[in-house]
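In response to a reviewer's request, we include the raw inputs and outputs for one of the modeled complexes. The four entities were modeled together in a single run.
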Amino acid sequence: MIIVYLLVLLMLAAAIAASVFKDLLSAVIAACLVSLIAAILFYFLQAPDVAMAEASIGAALVTAVFIVAIKRTKRHEE
Amino acid sequence: MADPESTSDNKLRSILYMFLFLYLIWLCLSASLHYQELLAGIFFCLLLTIFLHRQYYSLGLPPLTIKRFVFFIIYLVVLFNEIVRANIDVAYRVIHPKMPIKPGIIVISTKLKQDIAKMILANSITLTPGTFTLDIIEDKFLVHWINVQTEDIEEATRIIGEKFEKYLRVIFE
Amino acid sequence: MSEIFFLTIIGIGIVLCFFRMLKGPTAADRAVALDTVTTVTVAFLVILGYVFKRYVYLDVSLVYAALMFVGSVVIARFLEKGI
Amino acid sequence: MQIVGILITGIGVLFLLLGSYGIVRLPDVYNRLQAGTKCTTFGALFTIIGVGIMEPSWFWKTLIIALFILLTNPISNHALGRASRKSGIPLCDRSVVDKASEFEQYKGKV
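The model returned the following structure tokens for the whole complex.
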């Protein structure tokens, strides 16, 4: 049970990091980690289908879309 | 790439290889020998093969013989042995308090001609801890080595690539 | 009993990767940490499926193992200024 | 059978921990790639096969997962290494030799 609390803490840390980083590429990586931990938490809550959707959409697709968006604008935030 | 053999032969071979590979994956995924699953597997694998075999046609795979198959199995055993032995080496370097690493980037050369053989060699070098491939231009590989023992091209080729290359040369030529 | 022990050790590994992700001086370090933590997560999910004793749960780690390298490759292409 | 599976899984888990420790400890990007993506490939392979041995009816599916990891991990490793070299991240100061400039001249020759 303690491992679930640990995962929630890690998810909070990654989410705060995603909003603090000035380098937008690092922020995208942190957001990717947030969805990864979310998939593990869905797995703990006995919902493997939701975990599968979260894994494929949150990790692969959203990263690609964000990267294309950064490519069209600027990488570093002022 | 100009092929000396007849093209229809090559096409048939690529279809056969792709069908066998997909059907093996289907058998492992379904994990049952019921006749309905086997028939459905044949149907879907044939459908995928007919639509997708054009990408595999340009690889130029050689014909399948007993000798090549036996050498491929030996190659897998050698690769696994190298992975286990060298992984223990890297783990020792990580947990040693003084960290005895000597990293560097070197160049090695290869004699293999076909693209797929070079790809398999590069991935084998990457899987063997201590070395990984950074870039490829024609027959030269750029390799990062965690414990540089020599800087000469031939010497480094003999240490890193030769043990895989002698099997791959038999398989692909 | 031993499964709990394994899960704890892998949890420590995930925490170490997170530490590198938060600290890493360049973006490439963070990408390496992401690539590592996905591989560790696949092993974590397989052991978790063994704890729950459900065959269906293996599908999630199958999807992870087949798809997660797409994210790493896209980030690498962006770092190379190519996409 | 159970004991063999637990032993193999234990070896794999130990290597996963060592790979994560190497990520924190080693000095620059390339060395972190060495420890981070290859000790973990080996560790994940052993862990997954070990679980397959513990529960024999799962063996074939775990074999497929291990095959996917074995095929996809070198690709992402190679892509990240090449990208960090192209974006100009230097080697650490303990490095011995750097032949990247010598490598570039092969491009014109061929």
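As requested, we also summarize the result in words. The helical segments of chain B are 7-30, 35-57, 66-95, 115-127, 153-160, 162-172. The mean pLDDT of chain B is 80.
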